[in-house]
Amino acid sequence: MGLLRFEGFLNFNLQATLAPPVKGKMFKGLCVCYAVVIVTFFSVAISGYWAFGNQADGLILSNFLDDGKALIPKWFILMTNIFTILQLSAVAGVYLQPTNEVLERTFADPTSGEFSARNVIPRLVSRSLSVVTATLIAAMLPFFGDINAVIGAFGFLPLDFVLPVVFFNLTFKPSKRSPIFWLNAAIATVFSTLGVIAAVAAVRQISLDAKTYRLFANI
Q1: How far apart are CA 66 and CA 64, in angstroms?
Q2: C-alpha atoms less than 13 angstroms from C-alpha of 89 in its C-beta half-sphere
Q3: Which residues, 6+ apart, have CB-to-CB distance to 85 below 8 Å?
Q4: pLDDT score for 181
């Protein structure tokens, strides 16, 4: 997991799009990406709310525990945890890039080689400390799922669903009579609305959970 966090996932993604035709590859990649997100994330969210309503726990597996006893097979819990670790490792590798960039500018020496001791040691120490600090803060917050909801509402939803279609319309300027323009406009409108609703709900839930807040609470 640590090694994956130090990798530059964005570099591989960008390199994979250099060979022509770039537009076709990116479009196919986006189609696969949205299909996977809809099938996995949205299906779990919708079915979970259908099954448990607003009493659903922020951690999915916690909904399948009854007085500490698992209601599902142990192999399923193990498999889910493994997939969670893999997914979080990939996400961390991508979203830590801005932090890593700041650390590189602060501690790296551009006159030395990329893999010289002068750059490798500060990189290893600074990135490790950033991951440790983030992990410590996450462990301190007992309502970690609520924090993720806020980040998703203010960050992931706009970045993943709103801004791409808005930038497409602004960059390529499709005709306002074309289906693609109105499809993009509809996507931006729907997910902007969902983002606002999600943000209000997440902040409200944090305010409720904060009443019983304890550092490093085991929930």
Answers
A1: 7
A2: 12
A3: 1
A4: 92
